[in-house]
Design a protein that fits this description.
alpha+beta, Jelly Rolls, Arc Repressor Mutant, subunit A, 6-stranded antiparallel beta sheet, 4-stranded antiparallel beta sheet, 10 helices
């Protein structure tokens, strides 16, 4: 399956699953603006990153997600990205309607087949999670893929199988939470440090050899590791960081486009404009103009 969105009340595939508000896959080949706006909903949303690197905000707090990571968005939590920017990559998600227990915690419905005590325990763990990031949670991707297949094939027993898979997703998510180190993400600190150093001096013309040296790896292994973690080659990984920083700076009208180009490591304003348009579909000046227009319309 390439990409799709199924919504309760609009998609016949979800008619037998009133607890499933939305299911989808999104594959994005270019950076898109104003397409991933911040929203708040009543259900539980689970997003699994298939490919790429995404900067998302949950309850206004920034988080970075890589392939295999899951964003867990609880009822009432805001979710989206700065200026609705959607980066290059792919992700899949499910949006579930949950009940509320007398104590205020969320509960899976009767469709789950969980006992009352098991449902209450899972709901409480989900409600009390300290972090919305479930790192390296590949099992979630496998479960969501199975749900998609069952929804479209609709072979005998598919309703029971899908409900079982959704329940399994909640069980595995709570187990992942209890295993995960709550003091931080299970992501190599060396790569977190690398991105921090790159962002701190984007004007420098970084080579792959220099980036590899920063984390103490040879270039071949470094290339493999970066591709594995981010889905990009080191150079494309760096370009995406440059563009994400440029987008932030373009919101500040007092900084010229030429200065932004040089500050974020592009050879010239023309090089910056060409790369920016290739990844976003807009020239930097067009993006700035659209941002200022949208900003003034909100006043």
């Amino acid at each position: 399956m390439n990409q799709f969105v199924l919504q309760q009340g609009f998609s016949a595939e979800l008619r037998l699953f009133p607890h499933m508000l939305e299911v989808g896959i999104k594959k994005n080949g270019s950076i898109q603006l104003n397409t991933f706006l911040t929203t708040t909903t009543d259900g539980v949303r689970i997003y699994y990153v298939l490919d790429g690197r995404f900067e998302w905000r949950i309850d206004r707090q920034p988080f970075i997600f890589y392939p295999g990571d899951v964003a867990l968005v609880l009822p009432g939590s805001s979710f989206g990205s700065d200026n609705g920017v959607l980066e290059i990559g792919a992700f899949t998600w499910i949006h579930l309607r949950m009940q509320k227990a007398a104590d205020g915690y969320i509960l899976p419905g009767k469709w789950s087949g969980l006992s009352e005590s098991e449902g209450a325990a899972i709901g409480k763990i989900l409600s009390l999670t300290n972090s919305p990031v479930l790192a390296r949670f590949s099992e979630a991707g496998k479960i969501l893929k199975c749900i998609h297949t069952e929804l479209y094939s609709q072979e005998i027993g598919y309703q029971a199988r899908i409900n079982h898979q959704v329940t399994e997703l909640l069980i595995q998510a709570t187990r992942q939470m209890t295993r995960q180190n709550h003091s931080g993400r299970d992501f190599p600190k060396t790569f977190m440090h690398l991105e921090e150093v790159l962002r701190g001096n984007l004007a420098h013309q970084w080579t792959v050899e220099e980036m590899a040296a920063l984390v103490g790896l040879g270039t071949t292994l470094f290339n493999e590791r970066v591709k594995s973690y981010s889905g990009f080659s080191p150079i494309n990984y760096l370009i995406n960081i440059r563009i994400s920083e440029a987008i932030k700076l373009l919101r500040r009208p007092e900084i010229s486009v030429t200065d932004i180009a040089l500050d974020t490591g592009f050879y010239s304003s023309q090089h910056f404009s060409t790369t920016f348009k290739k990844l976003t579909g807009f020239r930097p000046s067009e993006f700035r103009k659209n941002h200022l227009r949208n900003k003034s319309s909100l006043k």
